[in-house]
């Protein structure tokens, strides 16, 4: 079995030391960075399976680093934040993050989030079909590739899994609780509904001709979301 590798960027030495032990016990190799510039440097030198970024870091903050990495890669990204303000959390999702964790970090929660996001990125629970299509949109499930009118659309693992689940259940109203369980892999109460709303907004910008008037990913007020008519 291949070793899971993580880039962990946080300027607090105490957190690095504690989490290094926790992650090492799980067989995870960790590359630590103390600031945003060092995180980007490591990112370009070390291939990793997952990136964890503290929002507040010297030189370049976590949001900037997240945006820069997302321009180059669909690697899963988790943000850490000490404040927990809704605006900051949404800003992180808009920058391309897949998930966030509030400080102080609880080791068991961190491991659970890491495992869930890696399951999404490796595409476990494969669909027997090789391709999902709807109008101009096409998902290649084996290549994990999304195209629209032959134009490639780059997506994070979470965005891909969300679109896949919506298309697999086209025409069905899916509640946020359903999405939290079946896309994010969290039990109820383990995740914030903001992450669903932010990911849907980000996904609409990529697949809708007019994100302000979506035809594919429709909001059913008070119930959830529905793909297609």
Beta-strand content bin: 15-25%
Unreliably modeled segments: 124-128
Task: Give the rounded overall mean pLDDT.
Answer: 84
Give the count of structural domains. 2
> How many strands appear in the DSSP assignment?
11
Shape assignment: globular
Per DSSP, the total helix count is 8
Report the top-level CATH class of the largest domain: Alpha Beta
Order of helices and strands: EHEHEHEHEHEEEEHHHEE
Instruction: Tell me the helix content.
Output: 40-55%
Distance between the termini: 43 Å
Structural class: alpha/beta
Please compute the radius of gyration using only Cα atoms. Answer: 18 Å
- The CATH topology label of the largest domain is Rossmann fold
Question: What is the name of the CATH architecture of the largest domain?
Answer: 3-Layer(aba) Sandwich
Strand numbers in spatial order across the main sheet? 2-1-3-4-5
Key traits:
single chain, 229 residues, alpha/beta, Rossmann fold, Arc Repressor Mutant, subunit A, 2 domains, 5-stranded parallel sheet, 4-stranded antiparallel sheet, 11 strands, 41% helix, globular
Can you put this structure into words, describing what you see?
The protein is of the alpha/beta class and 229 residues long. It folds into two domains: 4-122, Response regulator (Rossmann fold), CATH 3.40.50.2300; 131-227, Winged helix-like DNA-binding domain superfamily/Winged helix DNA-binding domain (Arc Repressor Mutant, subunit A, Orthogonal Bundle). Helix content is 41%, strand content 21%. A five-stranded parallel sheet has the order 2-1-3-4-5, with helices on both faces. It has a four-stranded antiparallel sheet with strand order 6-7-8-9, covered by helices on one side. A two-stranded antiparallel sheet has the order 10-11. α2 (36-45) runs parallel beside α3 and α4 (86-94) runs parallel beside α8. The chain is globular. The relative contact order is 0.11.
């Amino acid at each position: 079995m291949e070793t899971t590798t993580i880039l962990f960027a946080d300027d607090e030495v105490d957190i690095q030391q504690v989490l290094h032990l926790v992650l090492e016990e799980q067989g995870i190799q960790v590359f630590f960075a103390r600031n945003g510039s060092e995180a980007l440097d490591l990112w370009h030198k070390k291939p990793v399976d997952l990136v964890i970024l503290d929002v507040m870091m010297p030189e370049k903050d976590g949001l900037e680093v997240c945006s820069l990495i997302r321009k180059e890669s669909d690697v899963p990204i988790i943000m850490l934040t000490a404040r927990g303000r809704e605006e900051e959390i949404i800003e992180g999702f808009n920058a391309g993050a897949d998930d966030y964790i509030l400080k102080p970090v609880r080791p068991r929660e961190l491991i659970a989030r890491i495992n869930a996001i890696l399951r999404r990125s490796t595409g476990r629970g494969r669909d027997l079909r090789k391709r999902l299509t709807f109008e101009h949109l096409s998902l290649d499930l084996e290549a994990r590739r999304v195209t629209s009118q032959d134009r490639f659309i780059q997506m994070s693992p979470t965005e891909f899994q969300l679109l896949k689940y919506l298309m697999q259940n086209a025409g069905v109203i899916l509640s946020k609780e359903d999405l939290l369980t079946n896309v994010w892999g969290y039990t109820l109460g383990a995740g914030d509904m903001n992450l669903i709303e932010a990911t849907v907004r980000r996904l609409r910008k990529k697949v809708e001709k007019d994100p302000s008037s979506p035809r594919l990913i429709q909001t059913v007020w008070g119930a959830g979301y529905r793909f297609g008519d």
